[in-house]
Amino acid sequence: MNCPVCGKEMEKGHVITKNSIGLFFMPGEKDLRTFYTRRNIEADGGIVLDGPMTFRYNRTWLPAWVCRTCKKIVMEYW
Ligand SMILES: [Zn+2]
């Protein structure tokens, strides 16, 4: 995969979290609601990358590519 900013080849890796409630993309400046259910996150225009977990035993591991020059990360989700 090539960097969307400089066009150089990106380095493959992954984005990881441990003991988290999950990982989410939220549009604009939106935060998670107090009750961060999948339904509430998606109703606010968010994307659930992993989770949401009620208990913090989660481990998120998503494929990603990095350009260390531009400090950009491109992630894949499902
Ligand atoms: Zn770049």
Task: Write a concise synopsis of the structure shown.
The protein has 78 residues and is mainly beta.
Commentary on this structure:
By secondary structure, the protein is mainly beta. The chain has one domain (11-75). The protein is built from 1 helix and 5 strands. It has a 3-stranded antiparallel sheet with strand order 1-4-5, with no helix packed on it. A hairpin with a 4-residue loop joins strand 4 and strand 5. The protein is globular, with a radius of gyration of 14 Å. The chain starts with 10 loop residues before the first strand and ends with a strand. The model has no long low-confidence stretch (mean pLDDT 92). Bound molecules: zinc ion. The site of zinc ion has 8 residues, from loops. It holds the Pfam family DUF6487. InterPro entries: DUF6487. This is DUF6487 domain-containing protein.
Helix-strand sequence: EEHEEE
The number of helical segments is 1
| Structural class determined from secondary elements | mainly beta
- How many β-strands, per DSSP? 5
Number of separate domains: 1
As laid out across the biggest beta sheet, the strand order is 1-4-5
Protein name: DUF6487 domain-containing protein
Organism: Dysosmobacter welbionis
Domain DUF6487: 3-77
